[in-house]
Amino acid sequence: MRTPLRQKGRIGQAQTSSTQTIPAPVGGWNARDALAEMPPTDAVALENWFPRTSYCEVRGGYTTHATGMTGNGKTLAVYNALSGTNTMYCYTASGIYDVSAAGAVGASKLARTNGKHVWTMFGDGTSNYLIAVNGVDKPAYYNGTTWTAVDGASTPAITGITTTTISYVNAFKGRLFFLVNNSLSFYYLAAGAAGGAVTRFQLDAECVRGGYLMALGTLTLDAGDGPDDRFIAITSEGECIVYQGTNPNSAASWSKVGAFYIGKPIGRNCLCKFGGDLVVLTQNGAFPLTKAIQSNVIDNKESLSFKIENAFNDASKLYFSVYGWKAIVFPKQSAMLVNVPAAEDGDHSQYVMNTITKSWCKFTGWNAEDFAILNNELYFCSGTGTAKAWVAGNPDGTNDIVAYGKPAFTNFGKGGVGKQVKLLRPVLEVNATVSFLTGVDIDYTDRYLSGTATYTPSTIYLWGSALWGASIWGGGLSTVKKWTSPSCYPGYAATGKIKINVRTTTVRWLSNDYVFEIGGPMS
Q1: Exposure class string for 376-415: b at 16+ Cβ within 10 A, else e
Q2: Is-contact 76 116, C-beta < 8 A?
């Protein structure tokens, strides 16, 4: 390791060199706190680096999956069959397409005029249905064999409402519940029935802020479905009405728990199951509903997104009305993704949380209109095709994944004296050569990193002295280190940032090593 020599400093007194190692920003993206108050393991920016428990890793890439649909995909829905042979369907403004397998799609399964759907699975004891509604077309029912556009004369049939107005569907305690356009009423079928005459339940008197019903959900207060489950109705104005019971038509078995204000929900796909809880996306953040119904006032500190509060709130203000907002939990990677659409059929990003540590980062490069999980793998639709996401090896087609990380500033435990960073060394684990650029920012500045820098070791050895490219041992990753001499002026606090371009390389960021000179107070 290179050791700087003692030298007379620029700040007026003899300086000595010190070395310090700071872990990679596993605390995740912090878009809330003042720069001077962030822990050193947080990050000012963390783009396409996913914070694991002990390191940060460049996100997986995507590969093209099903292609050739007519119209742009808006909704992905999964049919989980009793046989275990699961299938996935993409809904466009033209029709519904089977996108279970990679390659060109076949003909549309059922005609549509709008691809923006809400869907659920439901079984009536005879058939298991995938049910999707959009408030424009007749509900699409699929029983594993046959697709049916449901109206008052189909099999199954729904009577008592105009089925083309059904805009939301949810299953609660063995019943199907529906919302219709521009209404503060919900409708429900008999227990265990996929069709039949609906019964109306009005909430107009309960909703003092007006608006219309936006979404329905099931909140589980114990470890799974059971008697403690609550029925959730959320309005466009942010009121959350909670009921308990099994039959809305019986006062003895249906009662109101309370009404709460949670902030305006973002879109119809504003709810996401999160373990036994239910997360709701609102203009104020992503909130677990168990916290919301414990008091009459929402405390932003209870939101899962509290650490990125400013970024989330800015995005919700700018893109509140853009279609594509959705949260989805991806257990395989211990992640929850919140899709943030800047423009429909255009630029999208994802705010991504590690479900173990609750640390956040931001993904770019996935212009996803919707996400779904098929057979424990993550997929998204974009344009006239679909893609398999978070794929090992970081393929991303012909595009590099550009990962940028800027940890929180640190004073190296010596806040009262000036210092100058002389050397910076990111410590990475890789399975191939990598191209990256480093830099140091001083005293809360933000200088742009431009260009690329390539580190190509003459020989990379894996753990256990197995030669890279010839054998795999210990996980197939080699630790690489490279000192760089940053161009920076003296200051009190510093951070070493990294920008890396990869196509098929696995990269883990373990830590940053610093060599810095210490001086006295600066004038």
Answers
A1: eebbbbbebbbbbbbbeebbbeeeebbbbbbbbbbbbeee
A2: no
CA distance 256 to 5: 74
69: its two tokens: 């649909």
The pTM score is: 0.91
Residue 373's closest CA among 412, 401, 333, 344?
333
Question: What is the predicted pLDDT for the residue at 290?
Answer: 86
The 10s digit of each residue's pLDDT in 455-485 is: 444 333 333 333 333 333 344 677 777 788 8
Stretches where the chain sits below pLDDT 50 are: 1-12, 223, 225-226, 453-475
Name the nearest CA neighbour of 48 among 360, 451, 379, 388: 360
Cα-based distances in Å from 477 to 84, 225, 427: 35, 42, 12
Please, how many CA atoms are within 13 Å of residue 238, restricted to the half-sphere of its CB? 15
Q: Cα(first)–Cα(last) distance of the chain, in Å?
A: 33
CA-nearest of 288, 289, 290, 293 to 304 is: 288
Contact residues for 393 (Cβ-Cβ < 8 A; gap 6+): 60, 61, 504, 506
CA distance 407 to 97: 44
Which tokens is 300 given? Answer: 């932003």
Which residue, among 454, 512, 441, has the nearest Cα to 23 in the 3D structure? Answer: 512
Number of neighbouring beta carbons within 10 Å of residue 16: 12
* Residue partners of 445: CB distance under 8 A and separation at least 6: none
Q: What is the largest CA-CA distance in the chain?
A: 90
Pairing of β 42-47 and β 49-51 = unpaired
Cα 192 from Cα 125, distance rounded (Å): 7
What pLDDT sits at residue 451? 64
pLDDT for position 5 = 39
What local confidence, expressed as pLDDT, does residue 498 receive? 95
| pLDDT at 476 (0 to 100) | 62
Q: Compute the half-sphere exposure of residue 204: CA atoms within 13 Å on the CB side of its CA.
A: 4
Residue 463: both structure tokens together: 């753990």
